Amino acid sequence: MLLSSRSLDSNFIKSCNIYNKTISMKKCKYCDQWLEVNSYNFVTSKTSKDGFENKCKSCKKEYDKQRLIFNKEVIYATVS
Ligand SMILES: [Zn+2]
Question: Distance between CA 41 and CA 39 in Å, rounded?
Fold first, then answer.
């Protein structure tokens, strides 16, 4: 339930008032979902300004799976 929102940094971060509590929301650039910024929802990053990547945990999981499959295919292609 979003009572109010204002744009902060870019289109990817906004703060919302939910039940009188202000929380930071961030948009995953892969699945376009707005999620609360915390280490449960987002992948932590040392290089990012706010300490989190623009990629949510489930997209990261998916990304890693795809990469694993891709690597396997590359290995098989090289072997055969
Ligand atoms: Zn995502």
Answer: 6
Which of 74, 33, 75, 76 lies closest to 55 in space, CA to CA?
33
Distance 74 CA to ligand 1 centre (A): 26
pLDDT at 17 over 60: yes
Q: Residue 68 is inside which H or E element, if any?
A: helix 57-79
Residue 15 pLDDT grade (very low, low, confident, very high; cuts 50, 70, 90): confident
Q: How far apart are CA 80 and CA 77, in angstroms?
A: 6
Q: Nearest to residue 7, comparing CAs of 24, 28, 30, 32?
A: 24
61 alpha carbon to ligand 1 midpoint, in Å?
9
